[in-house]
Amino acid sequence: MPASASLLCRLFFEYYKKSLQTYYIVIIVKIVEVIMNSEIIFYIEESLDGGFEARALGFDIFTDGDTEDELKRNIKDAVHCHFNEKEIPGVIKLHFVRDEALAL
């Protein structure tokens, strides 16, 4: 094989290898995006006025409810309003935080 053909083959192989690496990086980034967007976590506290207040971690989503059942319905509604159908998380996790004090 002539030297120019050998050089051309090596250049093509290097280009192909870099293209393949870029392709794999794009796939990995997409997988990470899917994993990160597959769930949303709400931080829930008891309200001073009674009921509950909830806020999503990492998103500007806030809601409240007088009961836990009402709060859960409101959270689902708020998530559906915030995201479009392609971006909506598959799982909503609720993290209830209750302050308690013990006397010694």
Describe the structure.
A 4-stranded mixed sheet has the order 3-2-1-4, with helices on one face. The protein has helices at residues 3-36, 68-82; strands at residues 39-46, 52-56, 62-65, 91-97. By secondary structure, the protein is of the alpha+beta class. The chain has 2 domains: 1-36; 39-97.
Short description:
This protein is α+β, with helices and mostly antiparallel strands. The chain has helices spanning 3-36, 68-82, and strands at 39-46, 52-56, 62-65, 91-97. It folds into two domains: 1-36; 39-97.
Strand order of the largest sheet: 3-2-1-4
pLDDT averaged over residues? 82
SSE order, as H and E?
HEEEHE
Oligomer: single chain
Indicate how many domains the architecture comprises: 2
The biggest sheet amounts to: 4 strands, mixed
Our measurement of the CA-to-CA distance between the termini, rounded to an integer number of angstroms, reads: 88 Å
Topology, number of strands:
4
Structural topology:
Layout: H1 3-36, E1 39-46, E2 52-56, E3 62-65, H2 68-82, E4 91-97
Parallel strand pairs: 1-4
Antiparallel strand pairs: 1-2, 2-3
